[in-house]
Amino acid sequence: VLTETHLADWLALVSRKPQGRVRVIDSDLATVTAAADKVLRVEDPQPWILHLELQAGYDAGLAERIAWYNALLSYKHGYPVHSLAVLLTRKADSPKLTGELIDRIASEPPYRIFKYQVVRAWELDAEKLATGGWGLFPLAPLSDTAPPVLSDLIDRMGRRLANQHPNGAEARTVAVMMDILLGLRYDREMTK
After folding, report:
1. For the chain, which has fewer Cβ within 10 Å, the N-terminal or C-terminal residue?
2. Pick from 71, 98, 82: nearest CA to 41
């Protein structure tokens, strides 16, 4: 109550002097919900958390959201967090996604510098993805190296999936994921 009725007294403590109107706003953070795409605890000698955000469409606030998730995960689990944004389409990209979010007020020095990693799927090598581990396997057609050999690539990936994947149920899941990801970049007629 004293902060509201005697706001000027509290503002006198602040090194940054407000120039505009000051008002009390809702401080209840319990109504804010957040769910990161995938969170993994890495059991290194100093454990840490890997936070993955997969993004298919444009989100003007993506860097800010990643920073928010990073802070919440670190606070909740008590470990350092490495955030990785995987952009699945060019529509998801933005010049703002530099891997560094710098927050400042006016021309003052930054009050927060947050670093995160950005991977653009179209910059990855399709052949390496198609012949590598099953986790990244479905991303192969999203690569810029895929379109010239798309039909052959999809055929080879289908054969590899059918003949080499050790788990039939998971192979079907990978095939569905691959089909969904293909739809992010290509018309259905191109992928038949």
Report:
1. N
2. 82
Q: What secondary structure does DSSP assign to 47-113, as a single string?
A: -EEEEEEEE-S--TTHHHHHHHHHHHHHHHH-S-EEEEEEE-SGGG--TT-SSEEEE-STTSPPSEE
Looking at the chain, the number of H-run helices and the number of E-run strands are: 6, 6
Read off φ and ψ for residue 132, nearest 5 degrees.
Answer: -95, -150
Distance CA 120, CA 145 (A): 13
Q: Which amino acid is at 22?
A: V
Best CA proximity match to 49, nearest among 88, 10, 81 = 81
Q: Write out the two tokens for 120.
A: 């653009």
Residue 52's DSSP bridge partners are: 38, 84
Residues 140-150 as b/e (b if ≥16 CB within 10 A, e otherwise) read: bbbbebbeeeb
- For the CA atoms of 121, 124, 125, 126, the dihedral, rounded to the nearest 10 degrees, stands at -10
Q: Dump pLDDT digits (tens) for 41-88.
A: 999 999 999 999 999 999 999 999 999 999 999 999 999 999 999 999
| 48 DSSP β-pair partners | 42
| Block residue for tokens 């990209």 | 93
